[in-house]
């Protein structure tokens, strides 16, 4: 298991638009609670949606109140190349403001996302997630975190028919 002073984030790229204010508040509360308990290093994978939202909250809390470190564990340098201009700009700003950027691969490979997710968990003692589906990268990452004994907080409320209520999150 990774450091007890580190926490990783994992979550879906698509989030319910109506939940964003409450999700931001919940992230801020959980990050603050961990900071008060001595966690100072937060790791995010840089993906659209929950990853970027969580990273932005770490940066906001770092600016406002706590001595926090944001570490981006990214799959490859071209992660955001196919995103729209607004998303790429938000991504560049996040990378510039991070305290450390780690690439698990120099170029895109079929397993670079998988390796990124494992590294996030292996470097951490706790995990804040947004998980409301049983399959996919987020589900795998949370299961891996459970297997390694990380403390996990899930900020999602599972809902039937949630796909119909979701919308792409642009941060």
TrEMBL record:
A family per Pfam: YpsA
SUPFAM superfamilies, per the entry: MCP/YpsA-like
Domain of life: Bacteria
UniProt xrefs under InterPro entries: YspA
Protein name: DUF1273 domain-containing protein
Species per Swiss-Prot/TrEMBL record: Neglectibacter timonensis
């Amino acid at each position: 298991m990774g450091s007890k002073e580190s926490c990783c984030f994992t979550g879906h790229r698509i989030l319910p638009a109506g939940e964003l204010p409450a999700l931001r508040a919940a992230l801020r509360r959980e990050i603050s609670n961990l900071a008060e308990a001595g966690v100072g290093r937060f790791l995010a994978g840089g993906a659209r949606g929950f990853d970027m939202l969580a990273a932005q909250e770490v940066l906001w809390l770092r600016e406002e109140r706590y001595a926090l470190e944001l570490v981006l564990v990214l799959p490859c340098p071209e992660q955001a190349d196919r995103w729209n201009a607004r998303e790429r700009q938000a991504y560049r700003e996040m990378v510039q403001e991070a305290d450390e950027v780690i690439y698990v691969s120099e170029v895109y490979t079929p397993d670079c996302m998988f390796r990124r997710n494992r590294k996030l968990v292996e470097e951490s003692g706790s995990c804040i997630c947004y998980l409301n589906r049983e399959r996919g990268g987020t589900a795998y990452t949370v299961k891996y975190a459970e297997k390694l004994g990380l403390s996990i907080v899930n900020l999602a409320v599972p809902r039937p028919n949630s796909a119909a209520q979701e919308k792409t999150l642009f941060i």
